């Protein structure tokens, strides 16, 4: 009973940049993100054959409880003088249409106020039985990997055709750390894509050394203060100097796993008696074979 969790914003951004901007509706509206998202979803469903499927969306991409403790959280994605995420102007009008299509297909869709899609996916991964496949192009979700519960990340950084299926061993080989300590590693290394600085002066090599010798931030801080043999004096000083940031880093980096999710069926959508609304959108927006591929992948 495989559950597939789609990091929808990650998918439509990748679709937008991966598909030609010459894909237009009959009225001239760009539809590259819509078509790419449908194509990717069809491919993923065909490859992994999930029994359950959820399109996870952002309730808030800068949750107040993260911004309150770290105002620069994702601030690098803001336009100067704006409170909105910087988003390509030809992508913005495609998103409501895509969401209407996802709804028309009957794919369960969940976003929760003041939480990111990552938090929604993490809560589903915590509460639901495996196997679970988390589909994303972002490294943040490597923290969810759990071999015992068969939770893996379908990592799309290199595209659908060359994607990686990330498990504990993959993380360990990629970063040279225990595979279940990716979040700890990220707290020290930082993540420029989220505007998270990490600990000043500690890069990937130092973060890996820390993750190999300590299981938590508090253990690493205690090790630095007590001159742990694994830490050079220089690295220990950097940890101590970064204590203020490290005290909030777990809240910033760890996904929330206790989001209040709506009660709903996660089953694959059943073929509706009438496909006319889907076909009408297909014609109106010139979505062609992309709609047909998803219909075929769903075995309708």
From TrEMBL:
List the Pfam families.
Answer: 5_3_exonuc, 5_3_exonuc_N
Its Gene Ontology molecular function terms? 5'-3' exonuclease activity; 5'-flap endonuclease activity; DNA binding
Question: What range(s) does the 5'-3' exonuclease domain occupy?
Answer: 1-269
The GO annotation for biological process reads:
DNA replication, Okazaki fragment processing
Keyword tags: Hydrolase, Nuclease
Tagged with keyword Nuclease: yes
Keyword NADP assigned: no
| Gene3D superfamilies referenced in this protein's UniProt entry, alphabetically | 5' to 3' exonuclease, C-terminal subdomain, 5'-nuclease
Under the heading InterPro entries, the entry gives:
5-3_exonucl_a-hlix_arch_N, 5-3_exonuclease, 5-3_exonuclease_C_sf, DNA_polI_H3TH, FEN, PIN-like_dom_sf
Q: What is this protein called?
A: Unannotated protein
Q: Which organism is it from?
A: freshwater metagenome
